[in-house]
Amino acid sequence: QVQLVESGGGLVPPGGSLRLSCAASGSIFSIYAMGWYRQGPGKQRELVASETSFGKQTYADSVKGRFTITRDNVNNMVYLEMNSLKHKDTAVYYCRADGDQREPDVVTWGQGTQVTVSS
């Protein structure tokens, strides 16, 4: 019912910056939280950052101080500003939306966007 489309990934040198975007459509009024996850080679998919509809933000320890999540509820967008990028940040980044109390078990994933940090 919710569709997510990501953009903004690419190749960036160490120390550089990127901004990822995720556009939500469909049953957007039932979204409780949106966030970004990533999966590096040979690793489990992990939470990078998330924000609830009430503004509560959560960040992985590895990105605190470097990444910032922003939700634009008017335009149904969520962004991930990534600064001071490191090689370890290389991964496929996925947008995720969780349903609210009306659909608490519904989780929607985007298609993923590749971020490669390399000199």
Q: Low-confidence parts lasting 5 or more residues at pLDDT below 50?
A: none
Number of helices: 0
Query: Fraction of residues in helices?
Result: under 10%
Give the helix/strand class.
mainly beta
What does the largest sheet look like? Answer: 7 strands, mixed
Quaternary state of this entry equals: single chain
Q: Tally of extended strands?
A: 11
What percentage of amino acids are in beta strands?
over 45%
Question: What is the rounded Rg?
Answer: 14 Å
Mean pLDDT, all residues? 94
Dominant shape: elongated
Architecture blueprint of SSEs:
Blueprint: E1 2-7, E2 10-12, E3 18-26, E4 31-39, E5 46-52, E6 57-59, E7 67-72, E8 77-82, E9 91-99, E10 107-109, E11 113-117
Parallel strand pairs: 2-11
Antiparallel strand pairs: 1-3, 3-8, 4-5, 4-9, 5-6, 7-8, 9-10, 9-11
Tell me what you see in this structure.
The strands form two sheets. Strands 2, 4, 5, 6, 9, 10 and 11 form a seven-stranded mixed beta sheet that branches. The protein has no helices and eleven strands. It has 119 residues and is mainly beta.
In short:
With 119 residues, the protein is an all-beta fold.
Features:
single chain, 0% helix, 119 residues, 11 strands, 7-stranded mixed beta sheet
